Amino acid sequence: MSAKRAHNEVERETGHGTDLWRVIAAPIIWAGHFLFCYVYAAIYCEKAGRSASLDHPTTVVIVATLVALAGIGWSTHHIWRVRARSLTDHDFEYEHNTPEERHRFLSHVALMLCVLSAVAVLYVTIPMLYLGTCQ
C-alpha cells in the first residue's frame, strides 16, 4: 500500500485520525484534578487549623470535579465522533496492520481512558463529601 493511499484511507475512515494528545487528554485532566484537589485541601487545612470545617474546600472540589468531567466529556465526544466514522462499514475485526485499523485501535483506547479517567475523578471527590473537618 502506498503512503498516499494509506493516508487517504485514514482520512476517509477517521477524518483526521486520533493523535497521541487526544489519547492522553483525559488522563491529563484527571491528574490535574487530583493534584489541584489534594494540594488545595492541604493548604487550606494547614492555614485554617485541624478543627476547621471543610465546607469551603468541598465546594471548590465539587466545582473542580464538574469542570474536569466537562473536559473529559468533551474529549470523549470528540473521540466518539472519530470512532463512529471509522466504523462506517461495520468491520469490527482487526486483521491487517493498516493505518485505518491503527487509528481505530487508538480511538478505542482513548475512549476507554476517558471512562477510566471519569471514574478516577469521581473517586478523588468522594472523600471530600464524607469528611467534615481537617482532622
Identify the quaternary structure here: single chain
Shape: rod-shaped
Element order: H for helix, E for strand: HHHH
pLDDT below 50 for ≥5 consecutive residues: which ranges?
none
Protein name: Transmembrane protein
Keywords: Membrane, Transmembrane, Transmembrane helix
Transmembrane segments: 20-44, 56-75, 109-130
Verbal overview:
The protein has about 140 residues and is mostly helical. The chain has one domain (about 5-130). The protein is about 80% helix and about 0% strand. It is built from four helices and no strands. The protein has helices at about 5-15, 20-50, 55-85, 100-130. The termini are far apart.
Give the secondary structure arrangement, pairings included:
Layout: H1 3-14, H2 20-48, H3 55-86, H4 99-130
Key terms for this structure?
135 residues; mainly alpha; rod-shaped
Sum this structure up briefly.
With 135 residues, this protein is an all-alpha fold. It is built from 4 helices and no strands.
